[in-house]
Here is the input.
Amino acid sequence: MPMDRETRLRLVNLRDDTGVLSLYVNADPRQEGSQPPWKNRLEQGVRRLLESVDGPTRSVLGRRLHDLELEIERLVRPGAPGVGRAMFVPLGDGEVFGVEMQTPLTDRVALAPRSHIAPMFAAWAEGSPSGIAVVDGHGMRILDSRFGVCEEISGLAFELDTAEWREMAGPVNAAGAWGNGQQSSVSQRDLFDFRIAEHLAKFLAAAHTSLEAHVAAFGWEFLVLTGEPELVDAASKSLSNALKTEVVSARHVLGQLSPAKIQEVLAPEMARARHRRDE
Here is the structure.
């Protein structure tokens, strides 16, 4: 299941009088082999746990592990989704929860009356959901970044009909500051481009409603706006002061780069934003 707010709440509230078994593996693809090392680490952790609990608990735990052999096999299988994987098993035959993310998790086996979620929340702190808005002359690309995965989810295309505009050539004839009729050095082409830039800025400013809706829908803890400074300023100036996310302004012109590359370039800004939040 995705590691969203609803999942976090369910895991926080997961309790069982007999115990909740929490299994974590870090399936680093660089370590894959016929017998992946994370599988060995998990098996060793489960074996130590069985040896450490009393007889009745050991019996219930052993039976539950036997019933979930297929689920546990999927948890450790090379090529399965996610680098960081976790499974939470109520021993009293309750619902089993599985979580996958591209952020590494600490290998761990734990048994307690409630789910052991500290490693999960540590990963959340490092890779929590963030929004990215890439602005340029084509409009705005909106991306969702969480736990090492970045996807383009929406976009706003800037389309301006200039067919009715008459592009003049040559310099503009305009009265000088003292009304002496001197010729301005600003060309008609400059004015034409200025009008386009003006419309683009208004378009990006009006996009605040879409960004605010995405923040609410995707639960972003950060919203990173990136592009040329004047376009970033235009896109951010109308955002609501009540917006429940931290807005981070970046100055990278990323254009049509892939989502993965955009996430890579912006990683330092996002890390600094999380550091400020944690401090």
In short: Residues 128-278 form a domain with the Nucleotidyltransferase; domain 5 fold (CATH 3.30.420.60). The chain has two domains: 5-124, 128-278. Residues 174-179 have pLDDT under 50 and may be disordered. The first helix runs from residue 5 to 12.
